[in-house]
Amino acid sequence: MRNNVKEEKKQMMLNENIMTLLPKMAVPTITAQLITTIYNLVDTYFVSTLGTNATAAVGVNSSLERMITVIGSLIGAGACSYISRLLGAKKEEHANRILSTSIFTGIGLGILFMIFGKLMLGDIVYWLGATEECAEYSIQYGTYVLYAAPFMIGSFILNMCLRSEGSATYSMIGIGFGGILNCFLDPLFIYKFGLGVAGASMATAISKCISFVILCWPYARKTTIVEISIRKFSLVWNDVKEVVAIGSSSFFRSVLTVVASIAINRVAGSYSTASLAALSVANRIMEFPFAFILGFGQGYQPVVGFNWGAKVWKRVKDSYTYGCAMAVGGSIVMGIIIFIFASPLIRIFNSQADMEVMELGMLCVRLQCFGLIMHALSSQVNMFFAGIGNAKLALVANFARQGYCFYPVLLIAPRIWGVNGVAATQALADLLSAVVIIPMFFYGLKVIRLAQEGKVETDVHKHSHRRKAEQHS
């Protein structure tokens, strides 16, 4: 029975029509991302009832949570790409070793992060952009999030590796259940138990831990293609290099997101705490379209990687072009909807009717709607190059949006338009990234054509040849 399930997953990745396979892979991933976004919004909503300073604290601590997931993204994204290519090349035992090494390494790094984070939390929240008014709330919120750090990293890795073998639905259940649970725990801990901001943090930590347990379940039952075992833990240099090289794309995307968030928080906070709260609310709202974009990319990346490893070039090209078209089309629809309803959306999280929060938040949201198309295309291009194992080009795509396009805008826009320039920074950076991303999209098509002509060799096969040569020598 278990072998039949494994074989069905392999056949699905290699033979099912791309037009039905990509939605099948992407919809559960998008759903999980949206549920996480909803629980972030619910978290922001309940905390916002405690005041503008508490709302600002949530924005500050979102950077702390991203710092934790940075570790998970480095290992998880690299392992996901490598495992999907190994499975496509029918190297299951090697894939088992990659997953086992990745998950135990990630949990160990999470424990270290928790320890050092707790020791330096007071300094960290100021470094993340907290003002004197919201620092106390930021410390309260950050305390319990740090306790969940090992489980958050573990969940991130398991979530991505389940998708690498086609188990996107179970991945959704694990992440989604934790998000839904958090929506119920928030009011219970904040109001019923009277714990305030600390209660919201406790609810988040408990939900993350339960998600981790759920994601472990299919591996414990051995219904997955890839298996986890402490006996298969092995730090082989070529494997570590491959995981880190590909994971560095997702890692730097997360790092850039954290650093960009810190930088813009600090600039906004220099104007007022209300400005910081406005950006916090706007960014929470924009997580909805971002969840769709990221979820779709994470859904189609394993399909690209699996078929790249199996050398089925037509399916690689079809998944790439269809994935980009769907992401861009979806971003246009969502951009129009959010632009129209920006005012009521901001009002939901502005319970104290602070006019500065309202006006600046609405400006930030509506401007970002214009940049969604390039955000969508850049994400899919990045996922494509990461999926086929091209770490360098994946990094180039990643650095565009919140790297070399973001910081010049952040430096210049506030000098010209003041706090409105801060609100416009991300949208302007997204539009500027078109100069890099559009040529990269067409280069991706060229890479597929070269691979089909035998002029490009997949990394997974190069590593296999290298290992065999080393054994013979």
Task: Explain the layout of strands and helices.
Elements: H1 2-15, H2 18-48, H3 52-88, H4 92-119, H5 121-127, H6 135-147, H7 149-164, H8 168-192, H9 196-221, H10 237-271, H11 273-310, H12 313-340, H13 342-348, H14 355-370, H15 372-387, H16 391-404, H17 406-417, H18 419-432, H19 434-452, H20 459-472
Transmembrane segments: 21-42, 67-87, 99-121, 141-162, 169-191, 197-220, 320-345, 365-387, 423-445
InterPro entries: MATE_fam, MATE_MdtK, MATE_MepA-like, MdtK-like
GO molecular function: antiporter activity; xenobiotic transmembrane transporter activity
Largest sheet: none
Number of self-contained structural domains: 1
Distance between the termini: 41 Å
* Fraction in beta strands: under 5%
Which shape, going by the Cα principal axes?
globular
Number of DSSP strand runs: 0
Rounded average pLDDT: 84
Transmembrane segments: 21-42, 67-87, 99-121, 141-162, 169-191, 197-220, 320-345, 365-387, 423-445
Pfam families: MatE (PF01554)
Subcellular location: Cell membrane
Membrane topology: Multi-pass membrane protein
